[in-house]
């Protein structure tokens, strides 16, 4: 596959792309939500007109392509002169020229309705770096909203008031000491422990971020309701290409999907809000989930796609969580499916191996054939959503994996044997990626 190019989508629609900034109304005692999102939506090929291919890297709303290139470099190399040089001399010239297969501000397909799907990115991601997955879903008729989370997990995020939230650099350790700060009132006050940031555990930090992410997904569900009802246009503005969206979103058939941290966000959100009817989790990092969520009965059909490097940030425990979901879901008539996509690494669910296959394989973050892997991933996604977000009795039956992909995956579901590992004795809150294996429910007890 050529360098820095995207594959064609697999659905019958062309795909439009645009960005939007949404916010909730200010209310006393309630946090105001603000988000920037990227929208992927169906376009009739014959109506695409002279629309140009859309840029991959964001270049508006207070942070341009230079800012995002620098942010990616800081995420991969940490802040410093090396990251600055890589971002300016490496990432920026390459990334700023990348075009997707989507069409910039093309007109929305007329004469039909659309099932909404919310996409949640992983650590260091943003609204653009899962464009292959989002665009392919849109080519199958879905209205995809790619979030840019403002919890500090994105490489960079921008809010409607032009506030920029940079990525929160966190060491890969169980205990995370906070950087001391000077108190403006003087040196003596600075020595008082209560005035200093507290040491937190990796779990406390990530679970807190997860809670914020879930609240953002709920906010986007509210936005979907407003868009479909044609209300609060000042809070959820749309460009002219989407002005005719009123009444066209199937609010009773909403899906949620994500990768890594975004996959755990999707899973947690599916427990949180009944408007979500199906969930897809790409190589989920399930460590941030609470004890309550891990032990709960899945409420909606869920598809876990896993890679050869499955859950390397929480070795072994993620499989146990999925085992638990599979075993508990069956008596309740909810199907949990697990499909191991052979030959994939953790990053094969993002755009980077597609854009730079040779480089990502050379540094060991991609399998051998990223384009082939992505083709399997996106078609499993659309097949699963087509089934469980469908209408009538068919959606109540168990999804069957398409036969053409059976050789590319290992598939299990709630009616079959569980994965190899037990679903008991899950080390909740234990950051097993840290060789010290701390188990610290409350870091401030140390």
Radius of gyration: 22 Å
What percent strand? 15-25%
Largest sheet: 11 strands, mixed
Secondary structure class reads: alpha/beta
What is the terminal-to-terminal distance? 52 Å
| Overall pLDDT | 84
- Number of alpha- plus pi-helical segments: 11
User: What's the arrangement of strands in the largest beta sheet?
Assistant: 3-4-1-2-6-5-11-12-13-14-15
Elements, N to C (H/E): EEEHHEEHEEEEHEHEHEHEHEHHHE
Helicity, as a percent range: 25-40%
DSSP, total strands: 15
Provide structural commentary.
- By secondary structure, this protein is an alpha/beta fold.
- Helix content is 28%, strand content 18%.
- The protein contains eleven helices and 15 strands.
- Strands 3-4-1-2-6-5-11-12-13-14-15 form an eleven-stranded mixed beta sheet, sandwiched between helices. It has a two-stranded antiparallel sheet with strand order 7-8.
- The protein is globular.
- The termini are far apart.
Q: Could you give a short description of this structure?
A:
This protein has eleven helices and 15 strands. It is of the alpha/beta class.
Keywords:
446 residues; alpha/beta; 11 helices; 15 strands; 28% helix; globular; disordered C terminus
SSE topology sketch:
Blueprint: E1 14-23, E2 34-43, E3 53-55, H1 65-77, H2 81-95, E4 99-104, E5 115-120, H3 131-139, E6 142-148, E7 156-158, E8 164-166, E9 175-176, H4 187-190, E10 200-201, H5 202-229, E11 254-259, H6 261-272, E12 276-282, H7 291-294, E13 302-306, H8 317-329, E14 336-341, H9 352-355, H10 357-362, H11 370-388, E15 409-413
